[in-house]
Amino acid sequence: MLCGQNPEQSNRNHHEDERRKEKWRERGEEKEVEVEEKLEEEEEKEERCPQERLVSKPLMDTLWAMFKLNKCPTRGDSQSLAFEFNMTVKQIKQWFRKRRKSYNKDMYKQKYKKRSK
């Protein structure tokens, strides 16, 4: 306590600091609860909609063989693959689109490495 300071004032300041700390703790606990609730909601969404579908080995072999022959299958090829493996044409197109994207990305990296040497 400083000289010339009223003892009642120092106690009052001390109590205000404690109140502020309590409010801060309460806000922190509220934020933790909100974060935990958001995480639980995200986990429930993931359980309802799995991100990746497990695909059979014959399907993957067939898709990769088709990809090696032709990076962009025709509409008929997509329909036959979809019918054969009980998938939609959209799923087949999406698979080929993703593979083309990664293939082109890898080709660009290799080309860039050759240039830098």
Mean pLDDT: 76
- Our count of helices gives 4
SSE run: HHHH
User: CATH topology of the largest domain, which one?
Assistant: Arc Repressor Mutant, subunit A
CATH homologous superfamily caption of the largest domain:
Homeodomain-like
Note poorly predicted spans.
none
The first-level CATH class of the largest domain is given as Mainly Alpha
Strand content: under 5%
Number of separate structural domains: 2
C-alpha geometry: elongated
Structural class: mainly alpha
Strand count, sense and barrel status of the largest sheet are: none
Quick synopsis:
This protein has 117 residues and is an all-alpha fold. Helix content is 79%, strand content 0%.
Protein model, in words:
The N and C termini lie far apart (73 Å). Helix 3 packs across helix 4. The protein is mostly helical and 117 residues long. The radius of gyration is 31 Å and the shape is elongated. The protein has helices spanning 7-48, 57-69, 75-84, 89-116. It has two domains: 1-51; 57-116, Homeodomain-like (Arc Repressor Mutant, subunit A), CATH 1.10.10. It is built from four helices and no strands. One of its GO terms (cellular component) is nucleus. Residues 11-30 have a biased composition (Basic and acidic residues). Keywords: DNA-binding, Homeobox, Nucleus. Its main location: nucleus. Residues 1-10 have a biased composition (Polar residues).
Question: What's the layout of helices and strands?
Answer:
Elements lengths: L6 H42 L8 H13 L5 H10 L4 H28 L1
Helix pairs in contact: 3-4
Task: Give a quick set of tags describing it.
117 residues, mainly alpha, 2 domains, 0% strand
